[in-house]
Amino acid sequence: MPRTEIELPYHIDYISVLDENGELDKGLEPDIPDDELLKIHRYMFLGRLFDAQILSLQRQGRIGTFAPTKGQEASQLGAVSIMRDSDWFVPSFREAVAFLWRGATMEGILLAYAGFSEGNKIPEGQNNLPVAVPVGSQTLHAVGIAYGMKYRKKDDLAMVFFGDGATSEGDFHEALNFAGVFQLPVIFVCQNNHWAISVPRKNQTRAQTLAQKALAYGIPGVQVDGNDALAVRVAAQEAEKRARSGEGPTLIECVTYRMSVHTTADDPKRYRTDEEVGEWAKRDPLERFQKYLKTKKLLTDKKIASLEEELKAEIQESVKAAEKKMKELGDPMDMFSHVMADTPPALEAQKEELARDLKDSAREADNG
Amino acid sequence: MAKMTMVQALNLALRQQMEKDDSVVILGEDVGRDGGVFRVTDELLDKFGPERVIDTPLAESGIAGMSIGMAVYGLKPVCEIQFSGFSYFSFHQIESHASRMRWRSQGRFTVPMVLRCPYGGGVRALEHHSESREAFYAHIPGLKMVIPSGPRNARALLASAIQDPDPVIFFEGKALYRAFREEVPEEEETLPLGKSHLAREGKDLTMISYGAMMRPTMEAAEILKEKDGVEAEVIDLMTISPLDDELFTKSVKKTGRAVIVHEAPRSFGAGAEIISRIMEKSFFYLEAPIARVTGYDVVIPLFARENAYLPDAQRITRAARRILSS
Amino acid sequence: MVMGEFTQETDVAVIGGGPGGYAAAFRAADLGLDVILIDDGPRPGGVCLFRGCIPSKAFLHISELLHDTKIAKNMGLTFEKPSIDLDALRKWKNSVVDRLTNGLMKLSERRGVQFIQARARFEDSGTIRLQGSDVTHIKFKHAILASGSRPSTKRGIDFKEGGRVMDSTGALDIPEIPKRLLVVGGGYIALELGSVYASLGSETHVIVRSERLLRGADLDLVRPLQKKLEGLFAGIHFHTEITELKEQNDKVEVTFDGEIEPKSQSFDRVLVAVGREPNTEDLGLENTKVKINKRGFVEADDQQKTADEKIYAIGDVVGGAMLAHKAMKEGKVAAEVIAGKPSEYDVRALPAVVYTDPQVAWTGLTEEKAREDGVEIKVTRFPWKFAGRAITMEAPEGMTKMIIEASSGRLLGMGIVGRDAETLIAEGTLAVEMGALAEDVGLTVHAHPTLSETEGEAAEVFLGSSTHILPKT
Amino acid sequence: MSRSFKLPDLGEGIHEGEIISILVKVGDSVEEGAPIMEVETDKATVEIPSPFTGSIEAIKCEPGDIVHVGDALVIFSGDGAEAEEAPAGKKPEKEAERKPEEAERKPAETEEKKPEAKPEEKKEKVPAKAPEKREGPVPASPATRRLARELGVDLRDIPASGPEGLVTAEDVRSFAEGVKAKEKPAVTEPTEKEAPAEEREVSLALSPTGVAIPELPDFAKWGEVERIPVRSIRKATARQMALAWSQIPHVTSHDSIDVTKLEAFRQKHKAEVEAKGGKLSVTVFALKAAATALRAFPNFNATLDVKAGEIVRKKYYHIGVAAQTGEGLVVPVIRDVDRKSVIELSIELTELVERTRNRKVLIDEMRGGTFTITNVGPLGGGHFNPIINYPEVAIMGMGQARMQAVVINNDEGAHEIAPRLMMPISLTIDHRVLDGADAIAFVNKVKEVLQDPDELLMAMV
């Protein structure tokens, strides 16, 4: 009869370990071995440089549309760095850095962005789903995969990435709900980069945080400083523990910022100010992490400089390899590959039709 | 051999495939405790447990999307969308992911899932419960679209669909669910997907149909024989996509005349594609324009007017007579 | 099912899963027809299995056992007074019913008969509407109506479920062993159930409107039974009727008119068993061409065809002897006719068995009916006091009689009172059906010592060659 | 109790026959196994033995009738045991005692005496029946009653043979047959459109090849004609030949065999064989020679199984010998020719041909052949093209041996013209199984054996 407040099992924490100035909350600092810290740094740095390289290639017309990751390196690496090879990575379309960590090659990424579907080929043994463009739709795939893990009694987990915009999509809610109902080992990593193309985060939801969406589905949610690799890592480790011990999913909201364009076809000046970007630049995840590593005496400016050289050379190698590959690929007939296990007769006929047309076109070009 | 309704035959297919392969799981709304609102999954929960017969929350996209993830992981989900009229919630999962995961991952991942849904009219249902929208799915490359016409082929086709390495949309005619019983052997039977079936031999006319419309079509063929002495050949497509055009184009070469029957609206329906194939392959054999007996391009009426909308043997017979006399 | 109406088509829809219905369904299926069997019970079986023959015989078996322990005293065996656990007894009865009905369910499945639990109602001469099942409509080529019968309520007595005034259905639950029980009716149901209660210890009073018990059976067969029942029951009152009946919390106050004193008495329970009525209502028969005769039964011919060419009717609903085996025979006939066979109901000897102690059974023509119809007959009787086997069983009150056509010596009927009459009557039934002469039965060797000898001897009485009876001079 | 004897199933798809003669008459007492009639079927004329001991009550057929399997031919009265034990005449007496009694019963009386035996109200169901029929239930067993319904006859119309008016199943059957016989003409009356069933049957029997038979012109337009039904052996021959001709691509190879030495040999031993009851004919030698060649070339002793796509080689050598009879061509088979001596074969062949001509050969004796020999020599004739006895794959024909001037190699190896007894031999093969070269090789083997009686003796071992 009386009106009482309902006590919910969860509340929303905000986690920050390393502040903008590189100051550390010692009590929260995760225990990460030095070589792993350096590996995370290497990928952060590689991601940053690779991003710039792709942007440059795109501007030269050498590859097509690309969604840069600049500014979101910590969100991605802080989370994927807890994954095992047997875990499954379910990306959206802005996870190039996480992809590299998970074993994807720069060459493949370049090929894909250059319009060659072969670049999307996921090698056997890598449990990564391909890029998913329809916003939020991939969250459900992680749920299905996690169901398989639970059904097969594995202690693996699925980690799915998506942005703030995706939290408005129905699939996101269905995924959280399903994962909650079936108590599945999924880690939902929301990279709240504040912009869904031109629409700011505040226009996506009236809710104070995105993490609190978890509460509606009876699962834990946490908000972290997404530009703080250590904070992301802490949240991911907690989620991992839950997932592997059968305690179900977790939603992690990484508060970060899309430092660059939505895609190479986008002009952010139409909807946001340079000041805002400047404000976020101060919280650059890479610089912060470098500061931390320097404090830990794992890194020096000199080392950073030489690493930069090394990574750039690596990138150049990849670009060269990719461009070489591009020349080899591109037979239009390949579009008929991977439609179905068997090519039905009518499709076979269409394939022959294309082959004929290609020949005819070539002949006409010769004559013409 | 036991006699079964289509519901029982589908249940048998599911049970046997689940017994054979522990990667086969069932999910959907009310498929577990309730055994499905049409009882297709009756008693499977008791037999296989809640881990394999999953009552999901009420969210079609969730059901389809989760199935895709399961399939990618190596399971063989058979998901049920309670009515095809609600499958549009899950449409984007099917179109954007299920149909193209193989291509997108360049062959690394396949989606061996089956999406079952009841379709079609004739059971005096509410709005959104009677549509026949197979063309939506047939239009998507990478998907198979299968519609059985009776208990025995339903069982065999569902078994094949479950074993198929690609996603299959499996439409079950509600009007057929309990319409009649057929002998269905206990031993596993399969039918190849993408192959049509010669349901009746004839020489004067080719009738092409599928699913629940096979009944009035066969009835019309019988009327034509009895009243007109016309031997109609009837072809049951069974798979809408990929469309097997070999049998019906060959048949039209023999008969020179064709009637196509479906309950879906006429424009851009399966009939349009069938006619195109006939034009491409059998044009010079045609002796009359091809007739389509279909639903009209309207919202399928509520059941008070439904009978006038759905093709029946009389309409089909009349159409056949028209083209026979031209 | 949540949405829509589901019509199933079939060759034969059988309404009613009693012995007549399932026999019809099974036969039709065996003849290659597609068959749906509909009953509102969870399994086939009907009244016979759930609320009639089978449960009552289970209880009668118990009263027979009780009786045997009593007469054993004469043979030098003494048993302690048996203690009766009603719950266990009911449980056993239910297990018997379960075993049999589950067996029927399996037989249905094996034969490809689809059983649907639902209430059926004709919408027209080709369609049945179902209530309570996933299938909502059945379109049939032929229907067999086997809806059966229910205890009669025509004497205006109200039955409340679980009340103190019981019909046979209520009585078969044996809610308790009432101290004083009034049984209304002198037919076989009244006598059988009355015997059960009396054996279990109820002080049982029977009132009968007419002057006799078991109408339809020859009086000489009834007499030994009546004598024995007079010992078992506290009273049998003929020409007696109830004028008022008041059900109260713990008793029933009854006022009588007739040969009983006092005229007002109170009983713990009342069992009313005054016949059965056909189930013809609420079946939508008005939507078909089926005709109902003046007595309320569905009209059907020898091939079980009703006035509606697509609908056949069998069993209690068409009247005649309301016996399961008659219904089964008619069910088979209907199925065969539907399958195009030239079958018809041409039974000449329909056995009737009353499972009292002693049992009464008769088949073919009765003596009373023959006299009524003016048939010239000879009747022979063989009293069991001359049969060794009967003596060893302490059952000397029995008697076997034959009704023989005077001119031809052909056996037209047989009647038996005594132990195991239920089995013995089969020989008479076969003989009548075969058109056997009394001579045929007399010349047939019967094993000694058995009760079946009484049949051979009854025939030999006719031939004048009986061993144990002196020839008439 | 009377019993009817029906044409039994004679096997091999034979379903009809023509009555040639009836060897008994009404009133005769017959022992079980004694011949009662001769029936000519497609395959042969067979004597039908009596299945019962008893006396003939009625004969339901006459010579010339075409009868079908299951047709009642003869009605026997009484069963064996009774007939043997009781002196003749006693039984009829006994029956006579009862019959008047039955006759005395008037219909009205019967009605009263035969009440509805069913104790329930079934009366209203019984429709009114014609007054001349027996009233009330007729005594009959349930199975008999069902039979009557199935045969569409009314029990009340049927004369009862059982005790006290009991109708037996046999009564029902014979009554129904009588009804059917009466109805027959009406039923079989041909309609204008459709050829009478019988006609179709005949044409199908004569031409089993499935090829449409063109309409024949009306021959009477050009003069008088007579139509003779094609029956039995002629019919069977027509069918068998048309079948073989349509199925088998025939190739015939002709040659001549110098049988001069053989003839000398034959003349020398003729008498001694004759003394043993045989006739030492050329056919006997040919049989032996053929068996030798068949063993050497197993594909000749074979059948092509088209459905299975296999050649069926037989490991036994049963050779048919075509024999012309008055009714047509019949091919009795001699078993295991390879294992029998010339003398045995002479005796067996003589006896078999004799029985064949007398139409006494059993159907079984005409089955199971693997190869056929047809020797037209005794009738004259030279080379001819024999048609294979389907489903065999070859047939060997011999013409009349004649003295001819033949160029031979003399003892010095020089050519010379000499008079030799030359026998024409024609071998027809199934070209699906065998080739011309096979035919030559086979004939050469036969020649080898027949030209040299020593060889023949070797072959006999």
Helix content of chain D: 25-40%
The number of domains of chain C is 3
State the fourth-level CATH superfamily of the largest domain in chain C.
FAD/NAD(P)-binding domain
**Major sheet characteristics of chain D:** 7 strands, mixed
Task: Supply the CATH architecture of the largest domain in chain D.
Answer: 2-Layer Sandwich
Shape of chain D: elongated
SSE order and pairing:
The complex is a heterotetramer of chains A (368), B (326), C (473) and D (461).
Chain A: E1 13-15, H1 34-59, H2 73-80, E2 88-90, H3 96-101, H4 106-113, H5 139-151, E3 158-163, H6 170-182, E4 186-192, E5 195-196, E6 199-200, H7 201-204, H8 213-216, E7 221-225, H9 229-244, E8 250-255, H10 274-281, H11 285-295, H12 301-328, H13 345-367
Helix pairs in contact in A: 1-2, 1-11, 1-12, 2-9, 4-12, 5-6
Chain B: E1 2-4, H1 6-20, E2 24-28, H2 44-48, E3 53-55, H3 60-73, E4 76-80, H4 91-98, H5 101-104, E5 114-119, H6 134-138, E6 144-146, H7 151-163, E7 168-173, H8 174-177, E8 182-184, E9 197-200, E10 205-209, H9 214-228, E11 232-236, E12 239-241, H10 245-255, E13 258-265, H11 270-282, E14 291-295, H12 303-309, H13 313-324
Parallel strand pairs in B: 2-3, 2-4, 4-5, 5-7, 6-7, 10-11, 10-13, 13-14
Antiparallel strand pairs in B: 1-8, 6-12, 9-11
Chain C: E1 7-15, H1 19-30, E2 35-39, H2 46-51, H3 53-71, H4 86-111, E3 114-117, E4 119-124, E5 127-131, E6 137-145, E7 149-151, E8 165-166, H5 168-172, E9 180-184, H6 188-200, E10 203-207, H7 219-232, E11 235-237, E12 241-247, E13 252-257, E14 264-267, E15 269-272, E16 276-278, E17 311-313, H8 324-338, E18 352-354, E19 359-364, H9 367-373, E20 377-383, H10 388-392, E21 399-405, E22 411-418, H11 421-434, H12 438-443, H13 453-463
Parallel strand pairs in C: 1-2, 1-6, 2-3, 6-17, 8-15, 9-10, 9-15, 10-11
Antiparallel strand pairs in C: 4-5, 5-6, 7-16, 12-13, 13-14, 18-19, 19-22, 20-21, 21-22
Helix pairs in contact in C: 1-4, 1-8, 3-4, 3-6
Short description:
The complex is a heterotetramer of chains A (368), B (326), C (473) and D (461). Chain C is of the alpha/beta class and 473 residues long.
Walk me through what this model shows:
The complex is a heterotetramer of chains A (368), B (326), C (473) and D (461). Chain A has 368 residues and is α/β, with parallel strands linked by helices. Chain A folds into 2 domains: 13-328, Thiamin diphosphate (ThDP)-binding fold, Pyr/PP domains (Rossmann fold, 3-Layer(aba) Sandwich); 332-367. Chain A has helices at 34-59, 73-80, 96-101, 106-113, 139-151, 170-182, 201-204, 213-216, 229-244, 274-281, 285-295, 301-328, 345-367; strands at residues 13-15, 88-90, 158-163, 186-192, 195-196, 199-200, 221-225, 250-255. A 6-stranded parallel beta sheet of chain A has the order 1-7-8-4-3-2, sandwiched between helices. Chain A is globular, with a radius of gyration of 22 Å. The mean pLDDT of chain A is 94. Chain B folds into 2 domains: 2-184, Rossmann fold (3-Layer(aba) Sandwich); 197-324, Rossmann fold (3-Layer(aba) Sandwich). In chain B, strands 3-2-4-5-7-6-12 form a 7-stranded mixed beta sheet, with helices on both faces. In chain B, helix 3 runs parallel beside helix 4 and helix 9 crosses helix 13. The longest helix of chain B is centred in the N-terminal third of the chain and has 15 residues, at 6-20. The mean pLDDT of chain B is 95. Chain C has 13 helices and 22 strands. Chain C has helices at residues 19-30, 46-51, 53-71, 86-111, 168-172, 188-200, 219-232, 324-338, 367-373, 388-392, 421-434, 438-443, 453-463; strands at 7-15, 35-39, 114-117, 119-124, 127-131, 137-145, 149-151, 165-166, 180-184, 203-207, 235-237, 241-247, 252-257, 264-267, 269-272, 276-278, 311-313, 352-354, 359-364, 377-383, 399-405, 411-418. In chain C, strands 1, 2, 3, 4, 5, 6 and 17 form a 7-stranded mixed beta sheet that branches. The longest helix of chain C has 26 residues, at 86-111. Chain D has 461 residues and is α+β, with helices and mostly antiparallel strands. Chain D is 34% helix and 21% strand. Chain D is built from 12 helices and 19 strands. In chain D, strands 9, 12, 15, 16, 17, 18 and 19 form a 7-stranded mixed beta sheet that branches. In chain D, strand 13 and strand 14 (329-330) form a beta hairpin. In chain D, helix 4 (142-151) packs parallel to helix 5 (169-188) and helix 11 (436-451) crosses helix 12 (453-460). The longest helix of chain D has 20 residues, at 169-188. Chain D is elongated, with a radius of gyration of 31 Å. Chains in contact: A-B, B-C, C-D. At the A-B interface, helix 5, helix 6 and helix 13 of A face helix 3, helix 4 and helix 5 of B.
